[in-house]
Design goal:
mainly alpha; 47% helix; elongated
Length: 113
């Protein structure tokens, strides 16, 4: 019985830290994926003089191997693409953001990343 109590106490200390570290690693992957996709959009623009029409066009033209899944939603279909700012005559995908709802560990909404 004492052993079970010790194990339960250790688990109550370790499990919250484990889940916190898992969430932190997902956020790190999200930041990295956003950086890679934004870099690919910039390279596409520099090479072709226009923005890609979709994220899949970045894959078709080999700027990305594949569209990564959003690590928060585990889906490739939840990425939110943003058009160029007003005044830019080009159309297409200017920026990409996560479509995940909720806030990150630092309190900032995922949709603002």
């Amino acid at each position: 019985m004492v052993v079970m109590a010790i194990i339960a106490t250790l688990l109550t200390l370790a499990l919250p830290r484990y889940f916190h570290s898992v969430e932190r690693s997902r956020e790190a992957v999200l930041r990295q994926d956003l950086h890679i996709m934004r870099d690919a959009i910039d390279k596409f623009l520099a090479d072709r003089g226009r923005y890609p029409q979709t994220l899949d066009e970045l894959v078709d033209k080999r700027y990305l191997r594949r569209v990564p899944p959003d690590p928060i939603t585990d889906s490739v279909s939840t990425w939110v693409t943003l058009p160029p700012p007003e005044g830019d005559v080009r159309d297409g995908v200017y920026d990409v953001r996560s479509g995940a709802s909720g806030n990150a560990l630092d309190g900032e909404p995922y949709e603002r990343w």
